Amino acid sequence: MYGTTMIGTLASGVSADDLRNELQAWRSQREVPGYMSSHVLIADDGKTVVNVVVFESKEAYVALADDPEQSKWWSERFAPMLDGDARWIDGAWIM
Fold first, then answer.
1. What's the whole-model pTM score?
2. Rg (the chain; Cα; Å)
3. Pairing of strands 87-92, 2-9
4. Percent of the chain scoring above 90 in pLDDT
5. Which candidate, 46, 56, 40, places its Cα nearest to that of 7?
6. What is the mean pLDDT of residues 2-19?
7. How far is 66 from 55, CA to CA, in rounded Å?
8. End-to-end alpha-carbon separation of the chain, Å?
9. pLDDT in the model for residue 26
């Protein structure tokens, strides 16, 4: 398994519900080969968001990362919900 962890800060006025609704829309609108699961944590500070995404393989993850439709969704729908740039950590899941 392979995946990524995104760490970011919610933009002012963006709620956990806003984020949840957008991620649910993404899941219902996209069929991503190799996508297994994702888990989103909103920290107790109400601003820090951590999104963990798991794929069957590194190739499946890279295919999504290189997909122009994914880039469009990120830049138009998700990135505006964050205050500044997100930090990404990619790697192999061992459990």
1. 0.87
2. 13
3. antiparallel
4. 88
5. 40
6. 95
7. 14
8. 9
9. 87
What's the rounded Cα separation, in Å, for the pair 40 and 59? 23
Cα separation, 59 vs 28, whole angstroms = 22
Pull the structure tokens for residue 17. Answer: 């519900």
Whichever domain contains 58, its CATH number is: 3.30.70.100
Identify the band that residue 28 occupies on the pLDDT scale cut at 50, 70 and 90.
confident
How is residue 74 written in tokens? 């990120």
Domain span at residue 20?
2-92
Look at the chain and report how many structural domains it folds into: 1
Distances (CA, A) of 26 to 29, 30, 38, 61, 93: 5, 6, 12, 16, 23
Tokens of 21: 């609704």
Identify whether the C-beta of residue 19 lies closer than 8 Å to the C-beta of residue 81.
yes
